[in-house]
């Protein structure tokens, strides 16, 4: 079963999934895409107009959003088959707090913590094409306002780091006191590790203020670097080759996800409906349209057709909305 990651190096969320794949020890290949649109290897060849990166294909199934990518990797490559885990057991006995870790990663790390970090980027040095591209995600970008907000962003990042410091105060090795690093560790680490080299953030990484947190950050960085040394280099493939293989691959049977009729009724959706699915936060104007084939409390699945053929595209239920597409009248 082939695993293909669509990513680009400067994408912090791509790095997050790189690390999930490292912990899981799942062999995969990668397609390097542009940091700005267009991305014809995704939109044209696969028919997926969701514009955020990364995307991950497992066979013919394409997963969107890092929360669902992480969940799908853990489910489809279980530890019982020799793969690693992003939900290790607690160090002193007991299973991992899987649901709590997922909620922590999505609702705090991804949606509260990470949005503070981009303000620290050198927006005043970016070319107009980049500013224009990012404006399509969340509305017109005011560079002067972003620059003016950096002090507040840095202050809030310190406030959140103090929570990490409090969590680590008892001397635990990992955030949820697990035997190995979990998705929780990966989801906080990628934010602070990303901004650490930025100019003007030195005061945030003060070892006298956050000794436990900085030790944890360095510990996980070293842990991941060691894993990477033992990893076979990830092969690169072209978008054309990737699309051909994805379209030709088998897909997970629909009954694995199923169709929860109760949830469908709550949403006013039926199997077979033509729907458009888009994020609730940024990128609302980049919905992906297809036939709804599966629905449960965690994800939507739609059939989408690009120039290479049919794929199954998966979206999370949390912070994504599916809207029925009005059928075109026949004249």
UniProtKB/TrEMBL annotation:
The organism's taxonomy opens as: Eukaryota, Fungi, Dikarya, Basidiomycota, Agaricomycotina
The UniProt entry, under Pfam families, shows: DUF7962, GST_N_3
The UniProt entry, under Gene3D superfamilies, shows: 1.20.1050.10, 3.40.30.110
* Domain of life, per lineage: Eukaryota
Q: What InterPro entries does this protein's entry cite?
A: DUF7962 (IPR058268), Glutathione-S-Trfase_C_sf (IPR036282), Glutathione_S-Trfase_N (IPR004045), Thioredoxin-like_sf (IPR036249)
Q: Where is the GST N-terminal domain?
A: 1-81
Naturally occurring in which organism (per UniProt): Mycena alexandri
Name of the protein = GST N-terminal domain-containing protein
Question: Which CDD domains would you find in this protein's record?
Answer: GST_C_family, GST_N_family
């Amino acid at each position: 079963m082939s695993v293909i990651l669509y990513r680009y190096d400067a994408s912090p969320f791509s790095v997050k999934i790189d690390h999930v794949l490292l912990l899981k020890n799942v062999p995969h290949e990668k397609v390097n895409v542009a940091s700005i649109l267009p991305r014809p290897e995704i939109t044209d060849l696969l028919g997926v107009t969701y514009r955020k990166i990364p995307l991950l294909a497992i066979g013919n199934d394409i997963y969107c959003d890092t929360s669902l990518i992480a969940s799908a990797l853990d489910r489809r490559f279980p530890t019982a088959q020799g793969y690693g885990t992003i939900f290790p057991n607690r160090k002193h006995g007991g299973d991992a707090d899987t649901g709590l870790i997922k909620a922590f990663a999505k609702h705090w790390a991804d949606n509260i913590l990470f949005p503070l970090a981009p303000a620290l980027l050198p927006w005043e040095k970016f070319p107009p094409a980049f500013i224009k591209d990012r404006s399509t995600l969340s509305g017109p970008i005011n560079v002067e306002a972003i620059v003016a907000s950096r002090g507040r962003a840095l202050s809030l990042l310190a406030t959140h780091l103090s929570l990490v410091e409090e969590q680590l105060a008892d001397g635990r090795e990992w955030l949820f006191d697990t035997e190995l690093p979990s998705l929780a560790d990966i989801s906080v680490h990628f934010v602070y590790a990303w901004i650490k080299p930025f100019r003007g953030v030195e005061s945030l990484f003060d070892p006298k203020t956050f000794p436990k947190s900085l030790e944890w950050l360095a510990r996980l960085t070293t842990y991941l670097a060691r894993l990477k040394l033992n990893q076979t280099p990830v092969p690169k493939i072209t978008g054309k080759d990737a699309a051909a293989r994805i379209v030709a691959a088998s897909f997970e049977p629909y009954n694995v996800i199923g169709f929860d009729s109760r949830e469908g009724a709550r949403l006013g959706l039926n199997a077979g409906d033509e729907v458009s699915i888009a994020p609730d936060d940024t990128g609302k104007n980049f919905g992906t349209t297809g036939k709804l084939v599966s629905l449960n409390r965690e994800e939507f699945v739609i059939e989408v057709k690009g120039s290479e053929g049919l794929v199954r595209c998966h979206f999370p239920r949390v912070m994504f909305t599916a809207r029925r597409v009005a059928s075109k009248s026949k004249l």
